[in-house]
Fold:
Amino acid sequence: MTEPFLEYVDEVAPRLREAPPPVALQDPAPPRGTGVLVLLGLAVLGLGFAALGTGNFVADQFSRAPWLGWLTAAIAVGGFLLVGAGIWRELRALFALDRVDRLRADLASGDAVRVMAGARAWAARVPGGDALLPALHTVNDPDAALALLRAGPGRALRDAADSIGRTAAVQTVAGIAAMPSPSLDILLVGWRGVRLVRQVATVYGVRPGLLGTLSLLRRTALSATMVGAVDLAGNTLAHGLLSSPLLAKLAGEAATAGVAARRMLVLGRAAAAACDPVPPG
Structure:
């Protein structure tokens, strides 16, 4: 029987090293939409050609008389300054909405550094948040920082938004009672709803212009899903009671006014949720 052949090696096998963790690839930023580029191009062309035409007109007026040229130049400069101020207000409102989205992402990230930085940044901007800054600088727990924001300026801002919503509900009921036509009721509710969203945004430090209002209405429509889910039982009950044939027969347009008032309250809460970067507790 043949004996097995064994060969011994004195060298020590190298130690297996742990493979490095995979590098998380960041999602690329989405490309700017075609519609936005087209609008920007049209704005540049419109303002550029308007400036060139105005400059030629001012030069022609100087050739007629110096005082006429200076008067035309002053009018042109004043007009372009007003247009620039309006564009700057629109851009500032859009930047404020983007800042709310960034703060919401930071506060909901779960990263302690991002949460604390976002909490301090938001507390420095909102009314009543300055009193929390010393506590936020000493607290290192993200959950505690979020709890301070919810109990401090967050609660005060929500109370202010609810007050604005109640005022809008009362005004809507009074307006519907005074309107002679149901078609005018729709215009009243729509106008008061847009004004309510703008008022709530102003409370949260966002002063939307035309483009900012459109963007805020879109965000409010998304936030209304969450707020409506919370108030679904009460809203359904109110709608069922106030829209019943018996009550409509007894109270006439009171049912429509009651439903509109309820929707104003929900709309105010949805607008507050769209402007509040602090995640619900």
In short: The first helix runs from residue 34 to 64. The radius of gyration is 30 Å. Residues 21-30, 227-242, 246-251 have pLDDT under 50 and may be disordered.
